[in-house]
Amino acid sequence: MARQKQYIEAEVIEKAMGLFWRNGYENTSMQMLEKEMGINKFSIYASFGSKHGVFLESLKSYKKKISSIFEKLQNSTKGAEAIKEFFYDSVDVCHKPGNHSGCLLTNTYNEFIESNDQVIKEQMTTFMADLKTIFIEKLSGNTNKDKQTIQKQANFLLLAKHGLAAASRVNNPKEIEDYIEMTFQVI
Amino acid sequence: MARQKQYIEAEVIEKAMGLFWRNGYENTSMQMLEKEMGINKFSIYASFGSKHGVFLESLKSYKKKISSIFEKLQNSTKGAEAIKEFFYDSVDVCHKPGNHSGCLLTNTYNEFIESNDQVIKEQMTTFMADLKTIFIEKLSGNTNKDKQTIQKQANFLLLAKHGLAAASRVNNPKEIEDYIEMTFQVI
DNA sequence: ACTATAACTAACCGATCGTTTAGTTAATTT
DNA sequence: AAATTAACTAAACGATCGGTTAGTTATAGT
């Protein structure tokens, strides 16, 4: 063939992800992406097709980044306690002081909830629905709660994720811990 | 003098507020504002100076809109129960199905948290700080909780506002009620 | 009725948005 | 070493961004 790529796609996507994570989709420009990813516009379009394509790959990369804590949650036999551990694990991954940005998926969910971008909207809806399913499964695990209570608690924890995202964005570790502990007093 | 204004500033700001509420600041363009406010760019700039100015006035209008439920909270003697009522009142104001947009201030807080716009950032920080102060006051009101517990609970409720905003944006009234009730089980 | 003045319309400003493309550089293959 | 081909640089694309301004219209005071 000919000249080889001077960059690794997975690496530059990692950097793009950080930018989207901090600023959101709309507030991230191609100019910023060029600078952060360290490659030219041409290369970005050659590899990912569009800004939208870069974002989709960034979301994929983020999901991969957090896949281990999802698997841990899914494989756990600790019931509701597993969800609490999942909350703590989420903070470990998302709470990067100086880079504090909450959860990329929660941020994206909020940014696109009123948008016309059906592709991303559907991804976010699916993500939330999947998470709720896992919550329900774990909440049903080691107790004999009635179905209605489980539904309520799953909804509550799903919404609590927004509080957690806000907490991990601005608060100190102690306050985050307090928030998680108080949230799970209800369960 | 001369020709009189063909619009009422308070009225067009009300419409601008709705637009910002639905779409956020960055995703609202001057073109959209012209259409929604029903007046020309010239008039917008004559009355409010800039897009930023329109947004600041919209925030002012929103605060005015919710001032009554704040005053009710502040004047209540019901302690923690007053905060719960405030949550319900917030939903009454913010949960407009078909126009569902959560809380403008919480939305704005989230949109500007990583921004360089110090003016709006400070307004949001001040709003959150003021709300926390009121929460602390109410939580201290009719009990003899220790100060540490009060601090924790105030932080918890402040973060729960993000969950509530998310709930009032997408969920049905029953789910919103469940979320509030479960939140206040902790208090 | 005339004049002054403010509110209006509409065209236009430079800057930046995401995207494309012409032209150059470097590595692979023959 | 020459030819090929893909990765690069950099300039430019049309569209839209927030914002401005020349020119027109309508109303108030004299």
TrEMBL record, chains A, B:
All copies of domain HTH tetR-type, residue ranges: 6-66
Keyword Transcription part of the UniProt annotation: yes
Pfam families found in the cross-reference section: TetR_N
Keywords, in A-Z order: DNA-binding, Transcription, Transcription regulation
Gene3D superfamilies from the UniProt entry: Homeodomain-like, Tetracycline Repressor, domain 2
DNA-binding segment(s): 29-48
Coiled coil ranges: none
The keyword Membrane belongs to this UniProt entry's keyword annotation: no
Protein's recorded name: TetR/AcrR family transcriptional regulator
Lineage of the species this protein comes from: Bacteria, Pseudomonadati, Bacteroidota, Flavobacteriia, Flavobacteriales
